[in-house]
Amino acid sequence: MTKFIVKRLLLSVVILFFVSMIIYGIMRCMPTSFVEQQALTLSQRPGSKSYQEWLTQLQAAYGLDTGVVQGYFTWASQAIRGQFGDSWYYNQPVVQKFSSVIWYSFALGLAAFILEVLVAIPSGIAAARKQYSATDYTITVVALVGISLPSFFFATILKYVFSVRLGWFDLYGIVGRNHQQLSDIGKILDMAHHMILPVITLSIVSIGSLMRYTRTNMLEVLNADYIRTARAKGVSERKVVNYHAFRNILIPIVTLLGGTLPSLFSGAMITETLFQIPGIGYTSYECVMQGDIPFVMFYMLFSAVLILVGNLIADILYAVVDPRVRVN
Description:
Oligomer: single chain
Radius of gyration: 25 Å
Strand content: under 5%
Order of helices and strands: HHHHEEHHHHHHHHHHH
């Protein structure tokens, strides 16, 4: 296992190198740039230099006056040392801005992930145990609605019902008006209260696929010969389902859940924008629109690392959930 992990880490470094090179090339080809907007703003001041002169000066200051390949290796040499530059749009170090917004997205993604697992897996198992029953049809309809319903549509319905009509939640924001006057526990509860609708939105739109995935795999396992043998020996139905059958559907579930690791940190751009939560998804969207290359580069590279780590963790967990799996 140690040899396998080392090989995968070395391979991940190679993959990350080519991925970062592609991302940097795409960023340099963006149709908009904060540098161009800044040069246009400065050139419109009375007595200022021309747009082209400002553009040349700013490109030289930010290292954009070189070719893509040379610019990439300059950026990579600094990134290896943990220096990702300053955000052009927010005018502060990229890492500092990233660390100030990532925890909002992490709290939102973690809460939605826990709720998704607690609801989707038991529901999928229940639907498989009672195939073609009212329970199965109800869970299937709920899953299909969750898969088909866009997040912005469902978020709008929640805001209209619970914010506009009932007044239980604020329409926007992560804190209330009196947040600074509350105690430490009160501030945490206030933020948790504002997280309820975004968490429900993310959970509903992602719960359907996991629910259907669990149901399909559980149906396949429940029809296996060893399950019929266990039932014929008089093993209780609860033990058959929860011990024999469920352990054998863990590998496909681990595969699916391993891919959700990036979503815990990468943020939900649409949901965060609709509820105006200052998370990494909303922040990265603003940076893309403003052509903030340093921040977008760091965000995309961070997402690529999370994907590689998620796949590695999923491969390791295969041997944990099923002792028959061994890595050569």
